[in-house]
Amino acid sequence: MKKFFRITLFVLLGAVFVYTLYYLYQKSEEKPVVYETEQAVYRDIIKKTVATGSVKPRKEIEIKPQVSGIIEKLYVEAGDKVKKGDLIAKIKIIPNLANLSNAETRLNRAKISLDQAKIDFERNKSLYEQKVISIAEFQQFKLAYENAREELKAAEDNLEIIREGVAKSSSGTTLTLVRSTATGTVLDVPVEEGFSVIEVNNFNVGTTIATVADLGEMIFEGKIDESEVGKIKAGMPLILTIGAIDQTKFNAILEFIAPKGISENGAIQFTIKAAVKLESDHFIRAGYSANADIVLARADSVLSIPEALILFEKEKAYVEVEKAPQQFEKKFIKTGLSDGVNIQLLDGLDDKVKIKKQIAPSETPAG
User: Fold this and answer.
1) Is 120 exposed, middle or buried (0-12, 13-18, 19+ CB in 10 A)?
2) How far is 222 from 228, CA to CA, in rounded Å?
3) Which of 41, 228, 258, 276 is a Cys-bridge partner for 218, taking CB atoms 3.0 to 4.6 Å apart?
4) Any idea what the Cα angle at residue 296 is, between residues 292 and 299, rounded to 5°?
């Protein structure tokens, strides 16, 4: 019985040893490499460079007051559409105390001067009618009287302008009513009722009450690196991708390239502008971020292959084509336009030939 168990143990050990040898042999044997193939296809090849920026209205107008004061009433809010001349806001004037005092003093003096001029005029008119004085002497008093009346009217108008912003006798539009100077959409109203505003003048840019722009005429404004600016020129087409509408591409035409670069983060950037061709079924808001692919060259519906398939021999491009299953030979080709991923085939291949895909050393071969 013991002999039987001993023999069985030896048999099992022998079987394990043989299996181990077979397993190690199988592991050491190299598996044949099976190369995948790819065929040339027809596609659009677009060589481009990229600029980043945003979409904004071509014309953006800041509406500012002609008088200083407090916003009494606002008639618009962001998003409203306005026409040129539409009412934007009404300003309540808070008169300057010094100017108000001077205007009141001027009015009082004008009244005194008029009273005196009237007395002189009436007295000398009587003398003239009695032939005591000549017409030349009388005309001087008449002229002084008329000037005094005009000065009183001017003083009254000046006081009303300081108090109310417009004279009652004036036929012009009151400066307290702020109107739009352009037709478009109100982009922003940075003030509220009760805010103090300053008039625009030679010493102050004034307070912006509203910003109005025509959203029907948009431009792309972005920046491009100095290494790429030499490749572009006005008139080139752009393909615009807007972040908020990324499923739709917009066409644009390059209009402007800045003659001077600006240093940003250690690199020189040049500003560019392009006219955007708007689609009727898309509304583009001012300030959308966007990327512009500037088309340097393009070839539509041309035979092409991935650049990764191409090998070189003495600066001549070739690919390995399949002549029999898993048997390949060199085929020299002539290439054209490249977009950095795919390249145009000008000669040497058609769309039926199978091209060997190269396997990197780190990749595990199929088999």
Assistant:
1) middle
2) 13
3) 276
4) 110
The Cβ-side half-sphere exposure at 74, using a 13 Å CA radius, reads 21
Contact 172, 66 (CB under 8 A): no
CATH H-level superfamily of 97-164: Helix hairpin bin (1.10.287.470)
Distance between CA atoms of residues 200 and 80, nearest Å: 24
Please check whether residue 96 is in contact with residue 203, taking contact to mean a CB–CB distance below 8 angstroms. Answer: no
Q: What is the four-CA torsion angle of 96, 99, 103, 106, rounded to 10 degrees? A: 160
CATH pick for 60-93+176-213 out of 3.30.10.20, 2.40.50.100, 3.30.1360.120, 2.60.120.400: 2.40.50.100
Q: Give the span between the Cα atoms of 82 and 86, in whole angstroms.
A: 6
Phi, psi (deg, nearest 5) at residue 343: -135, 145
SS3 344: strand
Q: Which two tokens stand for residue 185?
A: 């959409």
Total length of the chain: 367
pLDDT for the residue 81: 94
Q: How far apart are CA 144 and CA 263, in angstroms?
A: 68
* pLDDT tens-place string over residues 318-334: 888 888 888 888 888 88
Task: For the full predicted model, state whether its pTM sits above 0.70.
Answer: no
Cα angle: 64, vertex 66, 70; to 5 degrees? 80
Interval 199-251: pLDDT, tens: 888 888 899 999 999 998 999 999 998 988 888 899 999 989 998 887 888 99
| 366 DSSP assignment | B
Q: What is the CATH number of domain 49-57+215-298?
A: 2.40.30.170
The average pLDDT across 154-171 equals: 68
C-alpha separations of 249 from 45, 220, 254, 276, 334 in Å:
17, 13, 16, 11, 32
Query: Are the beta carbons of 336 and 43 closer than 8 angstroms?
Result: no
Contact between 273 and 10 under an 8 Å Cβ cutoff? The reply is no
